[in-house]
Amino acid sequence: MVNQSPVETALSRAMIRWSLTKSTPVAETPTSWIFRVEQNGRNFAALKILKPLAAEEERRGAGLMQWYAGEGAATIFDTHGDTIFMEWLNGIPLGDAVRKDRDEEAAIAIATVVGQLHRPRPEAPEDLMPLRERFEALFETDVKAWPHTARDLYARANGIAIKLFDKPSAQIPLHGDLHHDNIISSDRGWLAIDPKGLLGDPAYEVANVFQNPAGSTKLAADPKRIAMLADMFEARLGFNRKRVLGWAAAHAALSACWLIETDSPITTQLAVLPPLLAAYDLV
């Protein structure tokens, strides 16, 4: 008998545990292996088998998804060890709407999803990561790691982040990585996937939207687009406009710090930071 790999073993056990009948590999991501599975040959579902290095963060996100109970997010049916058994979403990512010139429609969809995710619920998960901890890379990066001409952008964004953390806000469970390509269409509407499981300021939830979707750098850097998003989130979610723009700038700088750590280009972040900071100054 050929020895099974750890992922094959986990898949076999999951198929038996949840009485699944057929599995098809769909994707391998940096954090997991994803399979589409069948239940009784009728309904599709998804199995997510976590990689060891990402298991803690992914389990935290799965706990938050269970807490959402299918409101604004994909439903998790059950978890066991490092395997997550969840709803299969058969649609397209919201990023596709933006790429087809439906950016404002996409912004409305994001606001709707956030409204559902932020609905008050009892007994929030206890293992959520404080937002301040998530920002460690921003505060610990040496400014000299940034391109010489962009160090003022880093300094400004860093200062804004400190100011935001110093000014108290509500502390609620956050998806923590909400952007267009982490929102998928389904028979139940647009649903979020892959949360990080954070605890912090509600206005941070939309920060990552400003530099997304991937491949839309020119759009993301457009001051009119920045204003449209800020207007949308203020009007539909009641978020403080200055905090929204502040978090967007701080998050863009944090993203750049993560990319610098892996010697990856920070083209998008360098493009969006100047107009974000300018918009922040105007409020």
UniProtKB/TrEMBL annotation:
<dbReference type="Pfam" id="PF04655">
    <property type="entry name" value="APH_6_hur"/>
</dbReference>
<protein>
    <submittedName>
        <fullName>Aminoglycoside/hydroxyurea antibiotic resistance kinase</fullName>
    </submittedName>
</protein>
<dbReference type="InterPro" id="IPR011009">
    <property type="entry name" value="Kinase-like_dom_sf"/>
</dbReference>
<dbReference type="InterPro" id="IPR006748">
    <property type="entry name" value="NH2Glyco/OHUrea_AB-resist_kin"/>
</dbReference>
<keyword id="KW-0808">Transferase</keyword>
<dbReference type="GO" id="GO:0016301">
    <property type="term" value="F:kinase activity"/>
</dbReference>
<dbReference type="GO" id="GO:0016773">
    <property type="term" value="F:phosphotransferase activity, alcohol group as acceptor"/>
</dbReference>
<dbReference type="GO" id="GO:0019748">
    <property type="term" value="P:secondary metabolic process"/>
</dbReference>
<keyword id="KW-0418">Kinase</keyword>
